[in-house]
Design brief:
Rossmann fold, alpha/beta, seven-stranded parallel beta sheet, 380 residues, six-stranded parallel beta sheet, 31% helix, single chain, 3 domains
Amino acid sequence: MNFACPRCGNSSPRYIGYKNGEAYCRRCISFHGEELTYKKKEGKGAPLNLHYALSPEQAKLSEEIVSNYKKGIDTLVYAVCGAGKTEISYAVISYAIYHGLSVGFALPRRDVVIELFWRLKDAFPQNKIVAVYGQHTSILEGDVIILTTHQLFRYKQYFDLLVMDEIDAFPFKGNDTLKSLYHNSVRGHSVLMSATPSEDVLKEFKKEGHAILELRTRFHKQKIPVPVIKKMPNAFLLPYLVYKLKNYIKEKKPVFIFAPTIDLCESLFRYLSFFVKGGECVHSKKENRGEIIGNFKKNQYLYLVTTSVLERGVTFKNLQVIVTHTDQEEIYSSSTLIQIAGRVGRKMDAPGGDVLFLCEKETGSIRRAIDEIRFCNTFL
């Protein structure tokens, strides 16, 4: 019996079960809850509230995205960390709202959805912006629906415009179910954004009906800080971290210290907290991580020890970054390291900072990440 799941498109017998003679899909069975039916909307104004002007390069890309959308072309925005990808998408969002079209903005992680929700509420103060994630699903309709990629199952053939950021990030990357939900949710066209798109994505967007727009410089036109490699035996790691952390705190500079696993994150924090007070640890299993990040923004913490959960989607002024055990390539791919390095120097009034890669040996991922950052800096 040939069966294709109407929700995720799965047709593999491995993930098909039968109950009372009826086929069902085991691959997306965990996705359950209210699903919406597409309804044409009335157009409305979407005046944009930006606190600064786009750079000429940002404005050009913004116009090209709108032009592509009008022509029925899907767009990939390939832009460095700190280029202002989100702001570049505002014009096409405004265009879609004005014409009564259904707009979604999907991201892989809940934390980034929450962050973007407040940014879009500020940018579109007269429009209804809703966030849909995890247990936050009571309001599903709005002028712009910001959601985790897992929640796309609720919106089959629903979005006239779907903007998706961080397409290279876990859990979307390499997840065929989420990719199917993405494709099934789009009835119109999409705008995908990434600083580190995969070769498969780049290949897809070179086909007819697709376009790639590149932006290799940050909005403030300053170079991306190039990571510095510090080779040392793991036995020297902890004393070096204490030394660097104390210096940064003396200079009133906030710090992220990245660890490859949750266990290492917690053990590193326990050690550091004996010598340097005012820190906290953050990882995917930390229930109150949103509160901790919020308090870090308010300068209530001096440093955070974290996993790759904070590799993207967060911006802090004057941030310094230390990556420990950077030679663990199964955790730290070149794209992950580029994203981590991209946390530094994102603010106009603080465009510099340190990125330190601590390792016992230099890996291919480390070299590729540094080479890519240096290449982007040649455009300045």
